[in-house]
Amino acid sequence: MSSEHDQHPLFLPLVFVGGLIFGFGLGFSHMAQPEVVLNFLQFEDFGLLFVMFGAAVVTGIGFFGIKQFRSDAPLTGAIYGRRLKTLDRNVVLGGGIFGVGWGLSGICPGAAYASLGVGNVFILYGIAGMFVGAYIQGFWRSSRTEGDAPTTAAD
Amino acid sequence: MSTTLTVAVLAELFPNGISHYVIGGLLVGLGTAVIYLGTGIAAGASTFLESTLSYASNLSRFQRYHASRDWRVVFTLGIVAGAAVYALTFQSGLVSSALQPGANTGELRDIGGVTIWLTDVQPWRLFLGGILIGIGTRLGKGCTSGHGVCGIGSASGASFVGVTTFLLVAIGVAQLVAATGVSP
Predict the structure, then answer these.
(1) Nearest-CA distance B87 → chain A (Å)
(2) What pLDDT digit, counting tens, does each position of A3-47 carry?
(3) Which one, of A145, A118, A86, A141, lies nearest residue B53 by Cα?
(4) How far, in whole angstroms, is CA B6 from its chain's centroid?
(5) Closest chain A residue to the Cα of B105, Cα to Cα
(6) Residue B64 neighbours by CB under 8 Å, 6+ apart
(7) B184: nearest CA in chain A?
(8) Rounded to whole angstroms, how far apart are CA atoms A115 and A110?
């Protein structure tokens, strides 16, 4: 059981504290309530825009701002980089499938974990579904790439 | 006069106010930034689904997340715990603020002094939606936090495309489902 990042004793505690703030924010903003997300998608309350873009702005300030002060992270030594993914057909196809699920249920992964935290045990239907879905695509894609070059880099 | 108009428009667009959305969003960003500043990791929530499956399955698609699976479990437990702190404080009435209007959807239930919140959205919607979310977020390389928060925060072109796609499709689907009379 080797992990690339858990050398520093503060690594896991810091990840937990970050998750704690993140989850509290999702609870406070009512994003843990699927109904509120559905109200946004049905144009009845546009508050979600403040949550997503407010979060993106703070994150952006952190991502770009820190590079003025140092180049690598104190707990891992990792060089600070942006979160960049290659744009291909999968981004659109996967985004579309996710969009159908999001529009149908009003839940997304982070908000679903937070929903469990506010006591919403029914969200376990949703989280169970997410694991089933993740398994289906993993099974399908693993069997498809088995014959291909095994040097696929992690994305 | 224009002030009255502005207030009327704001009340129309944001019938529940904006303070809790703004504060909550800033905290979501702060949590992401704390992890990034300490570790250099742009943490998204959906990779947890695959990385956690690596404990139970040897499929190559899941084993590629072997190295990050432990901290991703900790991140998710943190999210659950953070929302639980909200439930124990604001949701249970232990702390109150004019900036937090309280839930007006679903059902609040008191269990031994702790107020829990339960959704009215039907189980089949959660489960079927969940399956599509599990497939789509992993195929599409991110969810609302990976693309929507970290990706947009990184000014990533792929994330702009991803967010635009899932936002527009979700709006269409939610309106369609509501139009067919399914509620909630």
Answers:
(1) 5
(2) 555 579 999 999 999 999 999 999 999 999 999 999 999 999 999
(3) A141
(4) 29
(5) A35
(6) A152, A154
(7) A35
(8) 9
Instruction: Evaluate the CA torsion angle A47, A53, A54, A59 in order and state its sign.
Output: positive
Which letter does DSSP use for residue B116 in this model?
E
Instruction: Report yes or no: B128 and A104 within 8 Å, Cβ to Cβ.
Output: yes
The token pair at A113 is 């974990």
Whether B58 and chain A come into contact, CB under 8 Å, resolves to no
- A-B CB pairs within 8 A amount to 587
Three-state secondary structure along chain A? CCCCCCCCCCHHHHHHHHHHHHHHHHHHCCCCCHHHHHHHHCCCCCCHHHHHHHHHHHHHHHHHHHHHCCCECCCCCCECCCCCCCCCHHHHHHHHHHHHHHHHHCCCHHHHHHHHHCCCCCHHHHHHHHHHHHHHHHHHHHHHHCCCCCCCCCC
Query: Closest Cα partner for B86 from B144, B38, B28, B29?
Result: B28
Instruction: Flag if B126 and A123 touch (Cβ within 8 Å).
Output: yes
Rounded Cα–Cα distance for residues A54 and B153 (Å) = 10
**pLDDT of B11-30, one tens digit each?**
899 999 999 999 999 999 99
**A149 in contact with chain B, both atoms CB, cutoff 8 A:** no
pLDDT, tens digit (0-9, with 9 covering 90-100), for B63-86: 999 999 999 999 999 999 999 999
Q: And the tokens for A96?
A: 């579309």
> What span, in angstroms and rounded, lies between the C-alpha atoms of B126 and A109?
12
Nearest Cα residue to B50 out of B133, B128, B124:
B133
First-to-last alpha carbon distance for chain A, in angstroms, is 21
ipTM: 0.96
